[in-house]
Design goal:
Length: about 210
């Protein structure tokens, strides 16, 4: 078999190529928190779209700051337009962390923070730990796949980083599925205790 090599001249000689598949991300809704007990995105309410329009929905969290110290940021799904946030979920959770003092660092699975057929809210990070100092917050994203499907479970993947109240950076990786074949049409975000003092949540539809 002959080995074909390309160089700058051969690449620059290309005058056309087949069209490439491209995707797009459309901003649907932005909500700014201000001492809110929770923030909900409900399909068909307040310009929110969370249906078959897009196969993937992405939520971005920017500097979510808690009113209460040592808490977690959480989410749950609804299949009845937000009347109940209690979808059964199974998930995994692992984290990396590093102290500002360089005293310790680790990569570890968080057994206490995964869910096994639970209707509880899913924590975005492990043990409650988000600090409420003026400069502390959490940021990250959540992907929700095909929430309108009435055939498959509802997969999700999340990645967040937070400022721990004990002064360390903690990155968490969460993944799992809502174990329902009903369409998920709403999602709720809150702190494990106290209000969301400030921060922005952006909802995108992804083609």
């Amino acid at each position: 078999m002959a080995l074909v090599k390309h160089n700058n001249n051969s690449i620059s000689a290309v005058t056309s190529m087949a069209s490439l598949t491209t995707g797009s991300m459309t901003l649907i809704k932005e909500v700014t928190a201000s001492s809110d007990a929770s923030i909900s995105f409900v399909d068909g309410s307040s310009d929110v779209v969370l249906d078959s329009t897009y196969p993937i929905y992405k939520f971005e969290f920017i500097n979510m700051h808690p009113a209460t110290n040592n808490v977690s940021f959480q989410f749950n799904f609804s299949t009845d337009s937000g009347s109940n946030y209690n979808v059964t979920k199974t998930s995994t959770n692992f984290r990396s962390y590093h102290f500002e003092s360089d005293a310790a660092a680790a990569l570890q699975y968080q057994t206490s923070q995964d869910l096994a057929q639970s209707t509880s809210y899913q924590n975005f990070f492990g043990d409650d730990g988000l600090g409420n100092d003026n400069d502390q917050s959490t940021s990250g994203y959540l992907h929700l796949f095909n929430p309108s499907s009435t055939t498959f479970v509802k997969h999700f993947i999340a990645n967040t980083n937070m400022s721990h109240h004990s002064d360390l950076s903690v990155q968490n990786f969460i993944a799992g599925y809502g174990n329902t074949t009903n369409a998920v049409d709403a999602i709720d975000f809150k702190m494990s205790s106290g209000n969301i003092d400030s921060g922005d949540i952006l909802l995108y539809g992804v083609n």
